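Lab notebook page, bench 4
Experiment: in silico fold of construct C2
Operator: M.H.
Input chain length: 153 residues
Purpose: comparison with the prior construct
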Amino acid sequence: MVKEKLTLLDRQILNRLQEDIPLEAWPWQKIARELNIKEAAFLKRVDFLKKKGIIRRIAATFNPKKAGSVSTLVAVNASPLKADIIAKRINAFSEVTHNYLRDNEYNIWFTIVAQSKERIAQIIKKLKQDKDIEKIIELPAKRLFKISVSFKI
């Protein structure tokens, strides 16, 4: 992939989007004003950055525990030749938020956010029945160390 040359405005937009997005009717208009540009110009640059794959998505992040849910990290050992197929099967569960392919014995890692520990156990049990998954381990958090992640562009 050819590295995209970012303008000063692109960098300002990327930096600003990593901060809190205002919870109001016209958040993009407010951010555009902060950047001293029109909302249409802001949206055009965001669209460009999304099309180039520089912005993957813009989404809210919530604390599952405070929202009444539970979460866990899970890893599976699967044949690298079937990793895409298995990832699709894992992603079929609406409770799976994301997954990653890793160069490791346990090569597919994913997070489950569900309404109960029982539901997490049901999902893991179902995945253990998948003949293409060789091993599966659950890695629940013992203690949360929350950090703020922001990449200065």
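Observations: The CA atoms of residues 96 and 112 lie 4 Å apart. The mean pLDDT is 89.
Next step: discuss at group meeting.
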